[in-house]
Amino acid sequence: MNRKWLNNEKNRAENSDEKKIINLYKNTLNIDARNKQGIGPIKGMLEELRNIKTIDDLSELTLESKVESPLIEFSCSVDLKDATKNALYVESTTLSLGNSDEYVKPTEKSARIKSLAENYYNTVLTLSEYTL
């Protein structure tokens, strides 16, 4: 987290991307509040996962689902600073084309896949009413 962001938090618009990042950062570090909440925040996600019985059920999960996000990946793993604890990691998803060579030296197939991926992300952002 950029310390300047935290120091200038009061100067950020309430619904700005920077304010949202600051809130996510603070919420991640607020262990007491997270422990108090327990599994409450993920109960909906767990219920959706429990209700999956068929491939069709799995296919019906949408971008509005509480289960997945195409742009941000959450994972829980051993804390890199203390191996006796687990930590939540927030990461970007992997490259759409698989490896960086596909971007630098595109093949006909990778150029087609890149075009489809760009169209998909643009559609998702448009449908979510995202603006710059």
Automatic annotation (TrEMBL):
Q: Which Pfam families match?
A: Peptidase_M13_N (PF05649)
Q: List, in alphabetical order, the Gene Ontology terms for molecular function in this entry.
A: hydrolase activity
Enzyme Commission no: 3.4.24.-
State the UniProt keywords alphabetically.
Hydrolase
Residue span, Peptidase M13 N-terminal domain: 5-129
Q: Does Phosphoprotein show up as a keyword for this record?
A: no
Superkingdom, natural source = Bacteria
- Might you name a Gene Ontology BP term for this protein? proteolysis
Write the protein's name. Endopeptidase
Organism, by scientific name, is Clostridium beijerinckii
Taxonomic lineage of this organism?
A: Bacteria, Bacillati, Bacillota, Clostridia, Eubacteriales
